[in-house]
Every structure is written in C-alpha cells, then in structure tokens.
Amino acid sequence: MAPKQQNRLFLTSILLSLLAGWCMTLNADNHVTLSGTWRVALDRKDAGLDALSRADPADRGTAWLPGAIQAQGFGDPPTIDSPWLADIRAKEWQRPEYDAYRSPERFKMPFWLQPQRVYVGPVVYERVVEIPQAWLGQRVDFVMERVHWVSEAWLDGRPLGRRESLSTPHAYTLGVVGNEGLAPGEHTLTLRIDNRMAFGVGPNAHSVSDHTQGNWNGAIGSIALHARPVVAIDLVRVLPNTPARRAHVEVHVTNSSVKPADVRLHAEATCPAASSVETGTATRITANSRATHSMVLELGPDAALWSEFTPDRYELILTLESEFGRDTHVTAFGLREIAADDGRFTINGKPVFLRGTLDSQVYPRTGYAPTDEAAWERVFQRIKAFGLNHVRYHSWCPPRAAFHAADRLGLYLQVEGPFWVNQGPQLGLGQPIDQYVYDETDRILNAYGNHPSFVLMASGNEPDGPEQGGRFLRAWIERYKQKDPRRLYTSGAGWPLIDENQFHVAYQPRIQRWGEGLDSSINSRPPSTDSDYTDYVQSHKVPVIAHEIGQWCAFPDFDEMSKYTGPLKPKNFEVFRDLLARNGQAHMARRFLMSSGRLQLLCYKEEIEAALRTPGYGGFQLLDLHDFPGQGTALVGVLDPFWDPKPYVTASEYRSFCGPVTPLARLPRRVYTGGEALEASLQVAQFGATDLIGVDATWSLETSEGIVLASGAFGPLDLPAGALHDLGDIRVTLPSEQPTRATLRVDLADSANQWDVWIYPDHDAQPFPDDLIVTHHLDDAVIQELEAGGTVLLLLDATRLKGDVAFGFSPVFWNTAWTDNQPPHTLGIHLDPEHPAFRFFPTRHHTDWQWWDLIGYPDARAGAMLIDHLPPDLEPVVRPIDTWFRSRRLAALFEARVGEGRLMVCSFDLTTDLDQRPAARQLRRSLITYMRSKAFSPSVDVDPAAINKLLRDTDAQPKP
After folding, report:
1. CB atoms < 10 A from the CB of 130, how many?
2. Predicted local distance difference test score (pLDDT) of residue 3
3. Where, if anywhere, are coiled coils annotated (predicted)?
4. Phi, psi of 361 (to 5 degrees)
C-alpha cells in the first residue's frame, strides 16, 4: 500500500475512535440532545456559511433535526429535469402513455416514488448550543447518527473538519471544556450538509439513489453532545472464540491530556442465558496518545451460543477509571462462529441454510431507514414469520438499531458498503472511490463489528472495473480476512467469483436469469419439482448463495396508496391506475392483483424449493420479499413496501415452502392421465433448531373434491439438523374417470407442504364435430355461416396477432420498463373458474401449472389478443393480464355473437402435439362440449371486421 494511502488509513482509524464513542452508555448529565429547531438555508450558490444571510428568503427558515429538509417544504417541485440521482430510461420515458405526465404542472414519475420536493446541494444548519458548567475538564464530542451525505462543522466559526460516511455516525470533537476555544456557556454550532455525489458510489446505489430512499439532505437518529473524560474508551472490539468459550476484548483508549495517566479497566459480560463473568487490568497511558489494551473473558462451560434459534447475546460493560474520571462503554456481542465447511455455511459448527431477502432501503413514510429498534423489530419479525433467517443489505449498511434488533431476534445479516460501482464508475482505476471503499469498510467494521448478527460482508453490489473489479477486490478481501475474521467476505454481490472469496453470491443458479425471457427454464421446460443446482454448487469450493432470485411481479395493489403519508408519494401508481381506467379495465384491478399474485406465489415456491432440493447449497437471497418501487417500479414482493402482506398470501402458506424444516417432493411432472402412476421421491430440508429423532412423515394424495386417493407414512425417522434428507418414495396409480386436481401433502413434525397435480382421462383428442365450424380465418363463407346462426370456433395463430404482446407462463420479470421490454409482458391469466367452458377442465382463477401446456409449450405457445377496439362490455373468458405500464385489454379466449351465430375466438393452440399435451387436449374437449350446449349463448355483438383486426395481415391465408 502506498505511503499516502497508509497515512489516510491511520487518520481514518483515529476518526473511527470518535465514532465508536457514540456507542457508550452515558448518564443524562453528560448527554445533551440537539434534536429540535435549527436555522437552515439552501446554499444553491456554494456561498458557504454566508448562505444563512444571503440565500433567497424562500430558501431560508427553520427545520427540525433529526429529519430531512425536503420533507419540511424546502427545495423545488419535482420535474423530469430535476437533478435526479438515478438512472432514467429515456426511451421508455418518451412513450406516448406518459405524455400527460411530463409537463411540470402535471408531472408524475412512473419509475420510482416521487418526493414532494427535490434539492441536491449543500444546506447550512445552525443553532446555539449550551455547554454545561458541570462539563468543565471534559472532552465534548458532537455526534450525528446518520447523515446524508458529506458534513462539515464549525463551532463559533472555528472549523471542526469534514466527515463523509454514508454508513456510520459523523462525530466531531469540540474540545476540552475550560481549554482555549471551549468555555462553558452558549456557542454557535454550524453544519453544512451536502447531498451531491461526493464519490462515485454509483447512481443506482441504494445508499443514495432516488430509486430507493431518495436523495434527502439532513441528519437522522441521535443528534447530541457527549461529555467524556479526557482519558476515555474510544473503541472496543470483541473477538469471540466459540470452541474455547472465551472472548478476546481489545480496548482502545485515548489520553487527550498533557500528562500520563494510570488507568484501571474493568469488564463485565452478562447474558440472561448464562453466568456473568468479569475481569480487569491496570495500565499506564502516556500523554496525548492512543493505546490498545487486551483482556480475556472466560465465559465458562455454560456459555450461551448465539444463532438464529438461540439469539443469546452478551452485554459487555467496560469501565475505565483514572484521575480524570470514570468512563463507561457498553457493547453487545455473541459467542458465534461462522465458517465455510465443505462448501456450506456453519454457525458454531452446525450447517445452516440462508433463506434471505434484500432490504434496499425503501422506507416511504420517512424516505430513509428507521433508527429506532421497535421499527426494526417489526420488520424482522415479519421476515421471520415468512420463514426467512437472513437479510442482505443491497449497497448500503443499516443503522445501529437494526443490528441490535437482529441480534435479539436471530437474523443473519449480509452488510455491504454503500456501493453499486457500475453504470459509469469503476473500481481499481486509482480514482477517489477506491480509497473510499476502504475507509467506509473500516468505519462499518468498527461501528458494528461486534454484533453477532453481522455474519457476511460484500464490498457492494455487482461491481465494475478491470476484471469486473476483481483485481481491486482481491486485495480488499485479503485485508479484511486478516483484520477482522469475525465474518466471511466476498468480492461483491453477484460477481466476481474470485478465488479469494470466502463465499460466492452468484446469479447463475436461478430458474430465470436476467435477459433469458421466454427461454428461461420456467417458461420453456415442462413443469416438474425435480430440478436442482447440484452441478453448479459442486463446481465451487466455497458456499454459494443464489443472487437476487425470483423477481416475479404481481399487478399493483391500488389500495396500498393510502399508506403513503410521508414525503414519498406513489405517483407511479397514479399513472398505472390512470392507464388501467383509460383502457376500460378499472373494475379489474382487484382481480388482476389476486390472479397475478397467486401466479407470483407459485413461481416463488418453485424457485425456493429448487434451492432447498440442492444438497450442499449455501442459500438464496430473494429480490425481494417486499416490493421495490424504483427502477421502473418492480412489484416483486409478496409484501408491500411497508412490509405488510398482500391480500393473496399469508405468512403460514409462504413458510410452508420456505421454513427451517421444509418437506419436499420430487415430481417428474405436474400433469397426468388416468391409469398412469404418480411417482415421487419425498425429502425434507432439515435446518431446524434440533435433530428430529423418531419422527414419522405422513403423506396423502387427495382430490379437490375431498377424495383421498392414497396415503402412507415413513418412520420412525432420525433426521439430524443441517442437511437434506430422503424420506422415501411413493407410487400411486391414478384414477381415470373424471378430470380433477389433486394435492399431494407431506406432514413432518410441525411442518407441512403440498403440491398440486392434474389428472385427466386418458383419451385421444376429441375430433371437432360436424355441427361446429372450426376455422383459422373469418372469410366471407364463415361470416355467412355465422349470420345464418352457425356455431364457429376461430383458432388464431399466435404469430399473426397484432400487438407484439409476449405471452408467457411466468409473470413479468422485474418489470418491463427496466428490462427493455423483456418478455413475458404478461402477469398470467384471470378467469372465472365457474364459467361453463371449464366444466371439464378444472381450474382456479389464475395461471396454474396445468396451463403450461397451453401457454408455455414452446411449439404451441399461446398468443394474447389485443381487444382494445372491441366493445367495452365484452369480458374475455380467459384474460391475459398485461404489464401495468400498458394495461391493454387482452384476451386468449372470448365469445361473441355475430348476426344470429355464436363465435368463440381462441388464441390457444388446440391442434399441435396434443398427444404430448394432455391439458390442451382436455381444454379442447371442454370447449367443444360447452359450445355444443345451450349454455353457449354470447350476449355481446361484434362486427366480423373487428375480429379480423386482431391479426396483423387480415388477407393472409388461413393456417393449414
């Protein structure tokens, strides 16, 4: 490392001692809160402190700290030309759908939550502070818990320095009371906080971007003056040794006085689940110096170990006494060891499977992450209720309260530096961002490193640079593996997968990767529950976590809009609601939400179970358990941005396929014909708190009508925790009388899981009867038959349909606005399962696995008909749900009256490879039966010319 870089790191370490002092326990007598009203001025012209008197009157006033000035009326109304700190897809923004929202008077941003005010630049804050007479001889620090972004401070015009952290407190030393420049009494404290891009962290980094929290200006959390002895504890590092049941404690002490001091250090560690222990030492520290002292806490044979199931943490109280007074410092730690053993994670020697989600710093009610523990407890309790045990902080680091809450509740956290060095900035080119990565990592580890929940760290998200940042990040990993071995390190989330990584976060093991579109496995391969990622996992020596799996979308929940009571408003939802209404489908909003949501849940179940079926897997990180209302608006969560469940899901249902103990079934397919044998291998991903000894696993196959087709049990079984276990194989000969949906259910201890399969009678494709006219084109002869009272089935070739709507089995991936309109463009289908057309085709109101034969089969892929021009009262029998950025009226099956005749229009392929598509064969039979019955009585009249406008070329020859 160059000497200049070494000097900067040394200076940074001195500053970090001030930050760590913020964590100490203080009496009210040595703590003065500065929460309250401050004078403020927007410094648009970079005038510095003069802005308080020279700024325009509209840019001056008072504001409350902690808080953000934009939320208090300062700044400018947002427009497209606002100085957004976010990637904007200009091509998408220019679409005609958004014409009405571009003007400043009616501006609505469709791609992220819209702040009420926008301001990017410096703001000057000032107030009078009182230094108590009782603090005479004490060192006074001014600490702000979290600042966005760069701060400078002055006391009575005397500069105190500059701070740059996005992740840790900004701390300034005002001086020693009674010494020159810091007398007791009133003083003027001035701040200048600048939220412009100070370093190239990336415009989409979740630490700064408008896509997430928004680019606010201010300070949040604790803002206070702290008085401390001139000889004080500035930093404590606790390094647990789990096998030895002890903890090594490093105490960093600063002597700010002009003479040496004799100090006595005392440490006491307490835990409700274990015996208290204490130790002490005495030493001497020279004047104006900083020294490190070590102590060992022997925690004893009954020491409490920390894990997700036993979140027993210790409170360590350190007391320093000297002639200058008494200083007390409190920190939390856990006896916890995370390691990589034979390709998988272990906690305290026991294998663990990380079932994780992202937190992208989306907190709409405030515009920034909470700093109180109660708020974090609520978030973490919801995450655990849905079966997860892990949270990844995508390109940001949470505040202190999050670590405390995660320690108490038992969550494993992956923390990242505030970097998405991509889309412009790069690592390893010698730019200021390189040093900032090191500085910020040091600050994070010193501020939060003792917390047992902090188990993993990445430099940031998806880095770019030479070799995707690999050359730079090799050195970064090696430095911190040596400096702080209390956690495991990886280069970056997503990539690069370099040898130095202690674990990989890899985007490859997913059922749909970015850009795969309709070629992804879920859209191009027949459904089964038999896939896994064994080959990929075994090709790596370190644990693998799947990066940002899922990304399955649901339609917007417009009822959610009333929750946005803070500075960020859902103008994007207003745009989407307008588009839906403009296309005559406002009445479908709730139904689209529920049907798309159930398909989303179905896809997440398969995604998660594929990971759980993989032996030796490290885990997965969802993108996301809750919605991400930026980057185009990515409605990928089963929870909304407020961490509340959406109406189509419950925590218990989600936890059934995503829990500590999860039964699994390997089914080679989902659709069967009568007389065939259903064969399945039953397993359990057993990562619960304890070994399961002598338990029984029971199973049953039951139809939707309540008829039990078969059942059985395996056991008693011994199932040690920390592994994927085989339970046994089952074989059931299926009935052939009626089409039905059946559910395979497996129960084990307190866990249960289930899978639907469909059983159809074993018959050949029913020939089209003579009294039913089947055609691929409405020519004059067919129209004459209709007008004369004929019954017609019009089968349209998906490749000839207008509209370029890519209809796929899965819902939209991430969102169409931010993926260059990546297919599919649909969110599944909605239908009325009681419609007589489905009398012999059992279905629910949403896409389910049997529909893959009709929607996803590659050689007979369905099409979505664009029916905006058809009568508004025509309600399709099967309605594909369009992306919310268009909300066009679509149909895959609809009925209409033409003259005296009855017409069914279908864009499902009911003729190709029917011997391999039993569900398509069965829908064909059900439709034929319906169309020959009196129940087939369409009520909406449609002009034949309008029907032919569904096609690109109405003069094309019919399909042979």
Report:
1. 11
2. 35
3. none
4. 65, 50
For residue 149, cis peptide bond before it (omega within 30 degrees of 0):
yes
pLDDT of 5 over the 70 cut? no
SS (H, E, C) 679-713: EEEEEEEECCCCCEEEEEEEEEEEECCCCEEEEEE
Rounded Cα–Cα distance for residues 394 and 381 (Å): 20
C-alpha 362/C-alpha 637 separation (Å) is 12
Average pLDDT (508-519) is 90
Residues paired with residue 338 on neighbouring β-strands, in sequence order: 347
pTM (predicted TM-score): 0.94
Q: 759: which 2 tokens?
A: 């059983």
Tens digits of residue pLDDT in 206-221: 999 999 989 999 999 9
Asked whether the beta carbons of 638 and 600 are under 8 A apart, the reply is yes
* Contact partners, residue 903, CB within 8 Å, separation at least 6: 786, 791, 792, 794, 895, 896, 897, 938, 942, 947
Residue-wise over 425-460: b if at least 16 C-beta within 10 A, else e?
bbbbeeeebbbbbbbbbbbbbbbbbbbbbbbbbbbb
pLDDT in tens, 439-460: 999 999 999 999 999 999 999 9
Angle between helical axes of 400-409 and 432-448 (0-180°, round to 10):
50
- The amino acid that residue 426 corresponds to is Q
Terminal Cα-to-Cα distance of the chain (whole angstroms): 73
What is the sign of the dihedral through the CA atoms of 151, 154, 155 and 159? Answer: positive
Residue 875: how many other CB atoms lie within 10 Å: 15
| CATH (one of 3.20.20.80, 3.40.50.300, 3.30.420.10, 3.20.20.140) for 349-554+604-632 | 3.20.20.80
Structure tokens at 555: 């339609």
Q: Quick one: 25-223 is in which CATH superfamily?
A: Galactose-binding domain-like (2.60.120.260)
CATH of domain 661-760: 2.60.40.10
Query: Any idea where the domains of the chain sit in the sequence?
Result: 25-223, 349-554+604-632, 661-760, 773-948
Q: What tokens appear for 573 in the block?
A: 């939802």
Q: Is the pLDDT of residue 21 over 50?
A: no
Average pLDDT over residues 424-452: 95
Q: Assign residue 548 a region: left if phi > 0, alpha if psi is -120 to 50, beta otherwise?
A: left
828 neighbors 601 (Cβ within 8 angstroms): no
- Per-residue confidence (pLDDT) for residue 28, from 0 to 100: 54
Any idea of the CA torsion for 116, 122, 123, 124, to the nearest 10 degrees? Answer: 180
What angle is formed at CA 132 by the lines to CA 129 and CA 135, rounded to 5 degrees? 125
| Residues above pLDDT 90, as percent of the chain | 90
Q: How far apart are CA 458 and CA 227, in angstroms?
A: 35
- Name the token pair of 414: 């992956």
pLDDT at 481 > cutoff 70 = yes
Say yes or no: do domains 349-554+604-632 and 661-760 share a fold.
no
Fill in the amino acid letter for 59.
Answer: D
